[in-house]
Design brief:
The chain is an alpha+beta fold and 387 residues long. Helices cover 50% and strands 18% of the residues. The protein has three domains: 121 residues, Acyl-CoA dehydrogenase/oxidase, N-terminal domain (Butyryl-Coa Dehydrogenase, subunit A, domain 1, Orthogonal Bundle), CATH 1.10.540.10; 105 residues, Butyryl-CoA Dehydrogenase, subunit A, domain 2 (Beta Barrel), CATH 2.40.110; 145 residues, Up-down Bundle (Butyryl-CoA Dehydrogenase, subunit A, domain 3), CATH 1.20.140. The chain is built from ten helices and twelve strands. It has a four-stranded mixed sheet with strand order 3-6-7-10. The protein has a four-stranded antiparallel sheet with strand order 4-5-9-8, with helices on one face. Helix 6 packs antiparallel against helix 7 and helix 6 runs parallel beside helix 8.
Amino acid sequence: MDSGVSLDLFDTRSLLSEEELMTQKTIARFVDEKFLPIIQECFEEHRFPLDLIPELANLGLFGITIKGYGCAGLNSMCSGLIAQELERGDSGLRSFVSVQGSLVMHPIHTFGSDEQKDRWLPKLARAEAIGCFGLTESQGGSDPSNMKTHAKQDGDDWILNGSKMWITNGSIADVAVVWAITDKGIRGFLVEKDMAGFEASEIEQKFSLRASITSALFLDSVRVPKENVLPEALGLRAPLSSLTQARFGIVWGTIGAAQACLGELLAYTESRVLFGRPLSHTQSIQIRLANMARRITAAQLLAVQLARLKDKGQMDPSQVSLAKWNNARMALDVARDCRDMLGGSGISAEHCPIRHMLNLETVVTYEGTETIHQLVVGKKLTGVSAF
């Protein structure tokens, strides 16, 4: 399901409805026309193209599967195809959309009050407000239960203290979905940017996801009114369910990154002539190209089945873990191999594999490292938690 038919070796396009095909085509056109011409410059300059945010909203990409509140209400297959095309452009683009929809709008829609939904979801869908998701802490990493950010009641309000790390969109967010430990367990809070004691600073000098805004959040006795507490969010289940939604997008997005790398490499090996013939005419190159196509095709079929299960309400978190682990590793390996096969040109930003490779070093880590997902699958197989 790529933008080039030659990569679709198993005719996965035939598994899609007309609406799904049209959705993919629309987002592919946006990426080709509006994003790909500027991504190299954005990556080099360490900036996210903020001027494209209104266009992303006009395309209905925020809160894709939510019904009502000005959201598109599309199925999971459409949302996956959108993630795939966005990450074919860059992981930073898919991350921006994923955070806004899966990690901000989803918990508000699932765990919020009617008032919170009415206030925030339409604005977030139109990008009149930007959100971020504050769960990860510097000492916690893969163990969110080791949370230090805490909230204590003071009358009808809550007082939050702590910090969050590696937060996409943090420094431009109007609202942060912040998770904190309370005397009754972990709760979710909607922290607004102008609340006293709340600060967000951008993390600089990254060599991955450079075309993405990554921040640290600091909460110093931030007073949050009870109206900003997510009433149905209690315990780790709430933030983890939001991460499951975002991981679904990664399952699809990583395929797009791998396709971008392989597509560019195919063109390069056809035009690059060494020892009197194009590289694509040699056995060693064809074997490596075929291996990449095999892995991309398997990842695509896995993603399609996952989307169908999700739309039927039958998706299990362990299936998402297996798919995220498989597809992120696949994409990183493909990007690395493409970078190598480009020879000296492979380290140039004029070719996409080095950029995707650097991005995927983050994607393979965030929202669950390989080890975490392996243990999730191991628990599913054995019935025993080895965490």
